[in-house]
Predict the 3D structure of the following.
Amino acid sequence: MTEKEKGGPEPAQRRVEFKFPLLTLRTKRFSGVFDKLGSYRASRYASWVALFLVPAVAAIGLYLFVFSLYALLSNPAVGEITRQLGPGSILLLPGINPIVPIFYGWLAIVVAIAIHEGAHGVVARNAGFKVKSSGLLFFLIIPIGAFVDVDEEQIKKAKPRASLRVMAAGVGANIVVAAVCLIGVLIIMGTLAPVVDGVYISSVSDGLPAQIAGLMPEDVLVSIDGVRINSTTDLSNLLGNRTAGDLVSVTVARGEKWREEYSTFVNLTTSGNRTVMGVGVGDLAIADRLRNYQTVSLERLSMYLAPPTLASGLVPFSDSLAGFYSSSLGAQWQIYANVLYWLWFVNVNLAVFNALPLYPLDGGRIFNITLKGLLGRKLSDKAISIATYTMTIILVIILALVITLPFITPLF
């Protein structure tokens, strides 16, 4: 009879284990942290809140995936963005996904997974389960995950409520962190003020009055004859009241963060039946874009989900717009905003995916344990397993269709 069969100690797990291409680092150093945090009554209350959050988060996830599938099937144009971004946009991996920045992306992924797994460890100790070890998982030298090794036999033998609390803890922790980080982003947005607002000059035509007067691409048109210009409509209306040969006073902002002011005179000309200066322009509307982002509502939730790398013309802390704003937090405000945004983005996506009733993810295990608790006396373990795997297969099919349909050209 072996030591394990006698109830003796299990073989020690290796601290470093490499199975190409995965590297696993294990440690027991965090056991004290799990024990300490798990001893607080707040851990128990928080785990119950998490348990009630999981069905709501799972419902949101199911809605998003089903709605995405419906949109792909009913509107071929929906898949165009995915096709343009390429297959890498399907994976939330920095360096592979073109919209996820490498630094912010990896930082957010490592933090989100560590929080997710750490929450499992804290609630496991609160419920009296043994935490064997914890650690990090690497793809070669790239960190791709974290883990907390909870005694599975104890979880299987425990009462459903205790097991459910442990399973729900990770999703709940990710949602809390996501909410805090989103609030942080909005607080930073509240510190912003436009450096300049007006009409952005995207191009200057060779040989026309604007170039002769010294106007340059990337200038921001601030005023004409002392009249403030806030939009291309303002500019069109003002030039519509002028004729070719009129000399107008023009003021633009330019230089680093448009801190320099340059004034000149432009002798207007005509193009077709219009009076023009000879510039290509676009609405800047910096103040309006900031107000839109600062307005919190359910209708605007999609705005906060839009990555700055994908919606650079809408998100104030994107590389395209950040230069137009200043903050009381100093010159590094854009870094703070991006760190908090990607922590929000990755945590909420990780929570939604893990909450899905997709076995063996947390949501799938919660689904299975819940079925056993509710129907265990009426259905056999085999029937419950069939129901769990059936739900998993349905979700896998939906996910596979959402992922592959944009690249199946005959359907589009």
Q: What stands out?
A: Residues 287-327 form one domain. Residues 181 and 340 are 5 Å apart (CA to CA).
